[in-house]
Amino acid sequence: MHHELEVVADPDAVAGTAAAFVARLARACVQAQGRFTFAVSGGHTPWAMFARLAHEDVPWEHVAVFQVDERVAPDGDQDRNLTHLRESLGAAPAEVIAMPVNDVDLDAAAAAYGRSLPERFDLVHLGLGPDGHTASLVPRDPVLEVSDRPVALTASYMGHQRMTLTYPALARAQQVLWLITGADKREPLSRLVAGDRSIPAGRVEAAASFVLADAAAAGRGPARVGARSLKQDRDARPHCRAGSVRRMRWLRTRRTFPQTCWSFSGSLATSRAR
Known about the structure:
By secondary structure, the chain is an alpha/beta fold. Helix content is 28%, strand content 19%. A hairpin with a 7-residue loop joins strand 11 (260-264) and strand 12.
């Protein structure tokens, strides 16, 4: 899968850039089809993104937020992604469709959540772990080989069993937005954009993929692009096509701080500045 990579200064810039893009895409999708479907993973950067989104011009009453993965833990537990997601959203009236990780029969709960998923996601957010995992698709877990259902349970990982979208569910994404920060992500990021399928993240397929990383993760600092390119990107508008099988084109929005964008067909070392 081809990835576009944009590098900004730090995690705060990642969150701000992502929030601006998601807000504009949400408005475009609601205008085009009446609804915006967004699946989100956990992590400090996406929570910061949602905190910013809560103050953006977003048609929340038409937004459905699904979970990419969740730990099996009690409601309100600080280990739950849902706890932080709701705290970050604040009073924003989005519809949050939570993974039912407290049900007695977790297999049945996973199947039920799978039935609640849309045929296509307008956008799926993913993170990247130092070990190359994404969602709760971790190295050597049997869930990596699940191909017959959209939601499955993992083995215990870092103290918790988890419920996660599987590769077939992630492939429903019209666009994937990767938010990647920190120097410990440098190697897996390089492998991801090189198309290395030996890491779990490298096996994700989607219609379009955009990677937003900070300078620490990319191993290089942001660079200022020309005024013409900045203007072109500011004037660009992300759009959302009605219909579930048509490929959506990714149009990026940039903030005005210095940054560089690379388009990848290989590794970080072979990237070309745009």
